[in-house]
UniProtKB/TrEMBL annotation:
The chain crosses the membrane at residues 153-171, 191-213, 225-248, 304-327, 347-372, 378-397, 404-429. It is an enzyme of class 2 (transferase). GO terms for cellular component: endoplasmic reticulum membrane. Residues 1-22 form the signal peptide. It comes from Copsychus sechellarum. One of its GO terms (molecular function) is alpha-1,2-mannosyltransferase activity. Its EC number is 2.4.1.-. The gene is Pigz. One of its GO terms (biological process) is GPI anchor biosynthetic process. Keywords: Endoplasmic reticulum, Glycosyltransferase, GPI-anchor biosynthesis, Membrane, Signal, Transferase, Transmembrane, Transmembrane helix. Pathway: Glycolipid biosynthesis; glycosylphosphatidylinositol-anchor biosynthesis. The lineage of its organism: Eukaryota, Metazoa, Chordata, Craniata, Vertebrata. Its main location: endoplasmic reticulum. Belongs to the glycosyltransferase 22 family. PIGZ subfamily. This is Mannosyltransferase.
Length: 556
C-alpha cells in the first residue's frame, strides 16, 4: 500500500511537470514536421499569417489529410482569433500563443495514454501504477507526446484501439467484443492520419478478430460484427476524402449551393473527378525508394539497434532479451510436442500474457523496419505495450537508476538543447518586428537563417499582406554560398531603414566572420545544440563553450 501511494504521488508530480513544461514552454526543436504538418499550415489558413506551406499540403501533391490539423491546431488558432476579435484578449495572437496553444491541446490529449495504461494494466496483468510511472517518467511522453506530430496522434489512436480490443468480464475471462463500430472508425482515422498506422493496428485487429471468433456461436452474429466494422470504416473514409477534396481543390460548398439544378450534377461530377485520397498519395510517394532516399536512407536494422534504444533505453533492450528467451522457449516446446506427442504444438503461454504484448511491440517495429527511411519518432506509439510489458508483477523493473538518468538526459537533450535557440530566437525577432519603434515608422527586415532547422515563419506573427519582412532559409549552405548571399544583402540596401539579421549557430560563426561583412550588433541565445554542426569537445572544455552551445543573431 505504501509503494502504491508513492507511485501515485510520483505520477501526479510527473503529470504536473508535463503540463507545466508545455506552458513554460519547451525550447527544444525536435524536427520540422512538428510545425510543418499542422500549426504552420493552419496559421496561414486561419490566421492569415505568412507561412511556408510544405509540399504535402500543396494542391498539386496532397499527401496529408487536413482533418486532424483542422481539429487540433486549427481549433486552437480559431479560438485565440475569436478571443482577439471579441476584445476579450487584445493581443491573443503572438509568438507564445502560436507555439503553446496547439502544444497544450496535444498535452491534454497525451493523458489518453495514461488513461489507456490504467485501463489496460489489469487486463494484461501489469501493475497499473508502476506502468503509469514508467509512462509519465519517460522523456518520450514528456517531450514527444506534447508536440504537434502526426506520430503523436498515431500513438493516441493506437492506445484507444488497444483499449477497445482488450475487454474483460468481472469473472476475469475475456468479454465478448462490442466495439466493432468504434474500432472501424479509429482504424480508418489512423490510416488517414498516417498510413503506417496499419502496422500498429495489425496485432490489435488480429487479437480482436480472434476474440470474436472464439466468443461467437452464431455465424450471423460473427458477420454482424465484421459488417459494422466495414460500414463504419467506409463512412469514416468518406468523411476524410470529402474534407480533403474540398480543401485541396477549387470546388467549394458555396459553389455547389450556388449552382442551379441543371448544373448541380456537373458540379458533383467535377468534384468526383478531383477526389483526393491522401493516404494513397502518401503511399505512392513513400513506396518509391528514390523518394525515400531524398529524406535519408538508413540500414534496415536502425529501428531495432539505434532508434529503439534512443527512445526507450533499457526497456527496449530488456524487451529484446525477453523476446529471445520466449522465442527460444516456444521453439523448444514446439520441438518437444512434435517429437514426443505428434500433435499440434499449441501456444505455451496464456494469450493475454507477456508474449502477446511483445508481439504488439515487435510486429509494428518489424514492419516499419521494411522501409529504408527510419526516424526515432516513428516508434513513439510503441511506448504503450512496452510499459505494460515492463510493469508485469513477475518482471521487476531493474536498472531503476539507469532508467531515471536516461530519461533525465533525454529530456534535457531533446526538450532543451536540441536546436534549442531557434524558438527563443523567433520570439525575440517577433518582439523586435512588432516593437513600438517599428510600428511608428515602417522598417524592412531581412532574416537570413543558416545551419538551423527550417524556421516556422508563423511564429513571427506577420500578416500575409505585410511585405516588410523577408525570410531567407539557407539551410546547410556552404561557406561560398553563405558569403555571397550575405554580401548581396549588405550591398543591397533599398531603403533608409533596412535591418538585416543573420541567424547562425556558434559552431559555424567563424564562417560568416570570414565573409568580411561588418556587424553592428550581435545577440547570443543559449543553449542551442546543432547535431548537424556539433561543437568540438576540445573547444567545449575551453572558455568558449557558451558560444559553441549558442545561436547568434548578427545584425549587418
Amino acid at each position: 500500500a505504501g509503494a502504491a501511494m508513492v507511485a501515485r504521488a510520483l505520477w501526479a508530480l510527473l503529470a504536473a511537470l508535463r503540463a507545466g513544461w508545455c506552458l513554460l514552454p519547451q525550447s527544444g526543436y525536435l524536427h520540422p514536421d512538428e510545425f510543418f504538418q499542422a500549426p504552420e499550415v493552419m496559421a496561414g489558413d486561419i490566421l492569415n499569417l505568412q507561412v511556408y506551406y510544405p509540399w504535402e499540403f500543396l494542391s498539386s501533391s496532397p499527401c496529408r489529410t487536413v482533418v486532424f490539423p483542422l481539429m487540433t491546431s486549427g481549433v486552437m488558432y480559431w479560438l485565440i482569433k475569436s478571443l482577439q476579435q471579441l476584445d476579450i484578449c487584445s493581443s491573443c495572437i503572438n509568438s507564445y500563443t502560436l507555439l503553446v496553444s496547439p502544444r497544450l491541446l496535444f498535452t491534454i490529449f497525451s493523458f489518453i495514454l495514461d488513461y489507456s495504461v490504467y485501463r489496460l494494466a489489469p487486463f494484461w496483468e501489469a501493475d497499473p501504477w508502476k506502468a503509469l510511472v514508467l509512462l509519465a517518467g519517460s522523456y518520450v511522453t514528456l517531450v514527444f507526446y506534447t508536440r504537434t506530430f502526426t506520430n503523436t496522434l498515431e500513438g493516441l489512436l493506437f492506445a484507444l484501439l488497444m483499449v477497445l480490443v482488450s475487454s474483460r468480464k468481472s469473472s476475469g475471462s475475456s468479454a465478448e467484443p462490442t466495439s466493432s463500430s468504434l474500432i472501424g472508425v479509429i482504424t480508418t482515422a489512423g490510416f488517414f492520419n498516417r498510413p503506417t498506422f496499419l502496422a500498429f493496428a495489425l496485432m490489435p485487429l488480429l487479437y480482436w478478430a480472434s476474440l470474436i471468433v472464439d466468443s461467437q456461436k452464431s455465424i450471423k452474429t460473427l458477420i454482424n460484427h465484421f459488417l459494422r466494422f466495414i460500414l463504419c470504416a467506409c463512412f469514416t473514409a468518406f468523411v476524410f476524402v470529402t474534407a480533403d477534396t474540398f480543401y485541396f481543390t477549387s470546388v467549394s460548398l458555396d459553389n455547389l449551393y450556388s449552382t442551379n439544378k441543371s448544373n448541380l450534377i456537373e458540379a458533383i461530377v467535377q468534384l468526383h473527378d478531383k477526389m483526393v485520397v491522401t493516404p494513397f498519395n502518401f503511399l505512392s510517394y513513400n513506396l518509391n525508394p528514390h523518394n525515400l532516399a531524398l529524406h535519408g536512407s538508413h540500414p534496415r536494422v536502425t529501428h531495432f539497434t539505434v532508434n529503439g534504444v534512443m527512445l526507450f533505453g533499457m526497456l527496449h533492450i530488456l524487451a529484446i532479451g525477453a523476446g529471445f528467451k520466449m522465442l527460444k522457449k516456444y521453439i523448444r516446446h514446439l520441438m518437444l510436442v512434435r517429437w514426443c506427442y505428434r500433435g499440434p504444438p499449441g501456444l505455451l503461454v496464456h494469450p493475454e500474457g507477456s508474449p502477446t504484448l511483445l508481439l504488439f511491440y515487435f510486429v509494428p517495429l518489424a514492419f516499419l523496419s521494411l522501409f529504408s527511411h527510419q526516424e526515432p519518432r516513428f516508434l513513439i506509439p510503441l511506448i504503450l505495450p512496452l510499459v505494460l510489458f515492463s510493469a508485469s508483477p513477475n518482471r521487476a523493473v531493474k536498472w531503476k537508476l539507469l532508467i531515471v538518468l536516461f530519461n533525465l538526459l533525454g529530456a534535457l537533450l531533446f526538450g532543451c538543447l536540441h536546436q534549442g535557440g531557434l524558438i527563443p530566437c523567433l520570439f525575440h525577432l517577433e518582439q523586435l518586428i512588432h516593437s513600438p519603434a517599428s510600428s511608428s515608422h515602417l522598417r524592412h527586415y531581412t532574416l537570413l537563417f543558416a545551419h538551423t532547422y527550417m524556421p516556422p515563419r508563423s511564429l513571427l506573427n506577420i500578416k500575409k499582406t505585410d511585405v516588410h519582412v523577408e525570410v531567407i532559409d539557407m539551410a546547410g549552405a556552404g561557406e561560398e554560398a553563405l558569403c555571397q548571399t550575405a554580401e548581396q544583402q549588405a550591398s543591397n540596401f533599398t531603403c533608409s531603414d533596412c535591418h538585416i539579421f543573420i541567424i547562425i549557430p556558434g559552431t559555424v560563426r567563424d564562417t560568416i566572420t570570414k565573409c568580411g561583412v561588418p556587424f553592428k550588433n550581435e545577440t547570443l541565445i543559449f543553449p542551442h545544440l546543432s547535431m548537424e554542426d556539433p561543437p568540438q569537445i576540445p573547444v567545449l572544455s575551453s572558455g568558449n563553450w557558451r558560444s559553441q552551445l549558442g545561436l547568434y543573431i548578427l545584425e549587418l
